[in-house]
Amino acid sequence: MVQLVGSLLKELADSLSSCKVLVVGAGGIGCELLKNLVLTGFKNIDVIDLDTIDVSNLNRQFLFQKKHVGKSKAQVAKESALQFCPSANITAYHDSIMNPDYNVEFFRQFMLVMNALDNRAARNHVNRMCLAADIPLVESGTAGYLGQVTVIKKGMTECYECQPKPAQKTFPGCTIRNTPSEPIHCIVWAKYLFNQLFGEEDADQEVSPDTADPEAAWNPEETAARATASEKDGDIRRVSTKEWARSTGYDPIKLFNKLFKDDIMYLLTMDKLWKKRKAPTPLDWQQLENSGHPQGESPTTSGLKDQQVLDVWGYCQLFQHSVESLRSQLQEKGEGAELVWDKDDPPAMDFVTAAANLRMNIFSMNMKSRFDVKSMAGNIIPAIATTNAVIAGLIVLEGLKILSGELESCRTIFLNKCPNLRKKLLVPCILDKPSLNCYVCASKPEVTVKVNVQKTTVLSLQDKILKERFGMVAPDVQIEDGKGTILISSEEGETEANNNKFLSDFGIRNGSRLQADDFLQDYTLLVNVLHTEELERDVEFEVVGEAPDKAPPPQSNQEEVNSITNGNKDSAQPSTSSKAAAADDDIMIVDSDEEGGAPSSSAAVTTSTKRKHPDPETSETSTKRPRTDQSAAAAATDNDDDDIIALD
Amino acid sequence: MIEKEDPVISEEEAAQYDRQIRLWGLDAQKRLRGSRVLLAGVGGLGAELAKNLILAGIKGLTLLDHEQVSEESCRAQFLVPVSAQGQNRAQASLERAQNLNPMVEVHADPDRVEDKPDDFFLQFDVVCLTGCSRDLMVRVDQLCSQHNIKVFCGDVYGYYGYMFCNLGQEHHYVE
User: Fold this and answer.
1) Over 80: is that where the pLDDT of B26 sits?
2) Which of A386, A231, A253 is nearest to A319 (CA)?
3) Which CATH architecture has domain B12-166?
4) Known catalytic residue: A130?
5) A65 vs B99: CB contact, 8 Å cut-off?
6) Of A31, A162, A174, A186, which residue is the catalytic one?
7) Segment Disordered: which positions (chain A) (predicted)?
């Protein structure tokens, strides 16, 4: 006689109450998941989240109430969950999962790890930790009405990084600085401007006109001449934007006239740019102030205040007020202070709204409401409770299969917005086997990277290539030169002197091999270096074997497309507006809320390719497809795998 | 027809509902805000329903359940406190349900759904029946269709469940 405890077999029920599980993330999916785990009978649960509660979380993260705003998500989630099962043993960590404290030993405590994340960097990291510890991982993601769950088990299934995921869309520097043609270009520019004026200045986030723009030159020699000229010193232009702003006392009107009049007039002198494009029209503060502008609110009070689009003078004033507020914030923080952009900080958001709109106006684009700018600037992914509830339910069901030892019955499951031809809203697919040349889970992972060894610094190798692109957290690199020369040490300060040197300074050239290790992730990657002098503008490196980034079609607001986004994935920044331990550093369709300082001119734009299957992450549509069972063709009447569908 | 009673969305609502307004739009949010929903049955399925509806920001939700809280109730759903055994299930669930979103009017009704007269159902825009008998579902479905009230029925049995909805002869929607 089979013994049941509720709907569960007794053996399973027993193992639930004794095993230990880890939930990574206590947000939308995390809250629902915690509730489900506790009610299902799991007794030992660890939950970790670095973030704090925000009012915008309350429409779905139901373990939190208004009174909890500002508090640790993991902590409050634990307390609320304990309410409905006081006997549960829940441990909460208000911390980043990428903290080295959470090493392989830590992960080995658990029988099951479940992700409830919103950014790619953390997902990559947990993926590696679970591979290293050989613990099954249930991965998931949601965006709007769409959701996805999958299972990752070392040696048995694809790991999270087996399928290359398209990198977040970036825009060329000259588009941002010289020839924006879409609102998003202006928004990215405004965010760069924020950093240049108030935050951490970044050489990749220039806002001034780009004199070395190849499009501006009438002949190729001119480009080279301009490039050299702009690199040479001795010009007032060489003063950093921040220094200049400081010298004016952050005078909003002076700033305005430089950015929206003088710099635009300079662009106009680069006449070749405007041969086939509509030329920008500079703005003058005085003129705008003088010209009559209708006072009073627009009568559309039935809309959200944020959804109104102001007139140009309105954005001038918004610019002025936000600059003044941010200036005060800087002063309060003292000498050498830097602000970090946060979409939930009103003056910061106001500033970007104003600056972006003024620029849009200059370049003849229709201006956008603060509401819309916030979506784009903040990489916000619309979210509701129900989708997360469904996905969390599926996570537990997959988890039960795993704990019952039924890994073969695990599936990737997609939650669609509308039923498919077979009237299914939930579509399961067979899990793929590991990719033999996966640069993470293959037995000896290897990649080939094209760089200009004379122009790429050791720091770039560390930050842009190993950390950002290959997901390492604390890389150690040695050159395979027979001497095992150490290029980068994860120990702080040890190899700092190497940072600004070029790879070629160490004898690295075409065909060199580097061994990169991340000891925390128990991960070794062999990097083959190919030297090239022909990389695209603004591209620092290229991974061989990957398709180059293509510009996706402009993304419409909510919609669709089978792209799951959950958090601003690529930037490795966690999704919320937390100022917590986000030191390390993380979109789509809309994506989750934001990043502190996105390293590139990234915008969360989804690639809207039809029929591709969503990735647990966000916007990226993976090449992953649901596959039929081997016998699917013949198994039309096979009730068992009735739900496995072959889609093209 | 659902009236948009108050066209103005407050700052508080705009902030709290921001992420869902960005999904289904302000107009949809206003319609939700004007809707009154009846939920019969506050077991596991009902609790999930209650949570999702309340978080969405409807105008009012009535929790209708004549059952008493048993030991199993606390394991089945998360709205009933472990200390509430013996109490009426709807009333025991009220506090936590209300705390999910103070902007929604949540009521508890301990009566039997079968004992409710026809006009009771007519005060709602949407009626949700969980764990109800077929007879009742047929009766309510027929009654509500005549008055353009949407009806949703559902139940759960272990790993299985079903949902049925009747949105009327002519249901307009936007995608």
Assistant:
1) yes
2) A253
3) 3-Layer(aba) Sandwich (3.40)
4) no
5) yes
6) A174
7) 203-235, 546-648
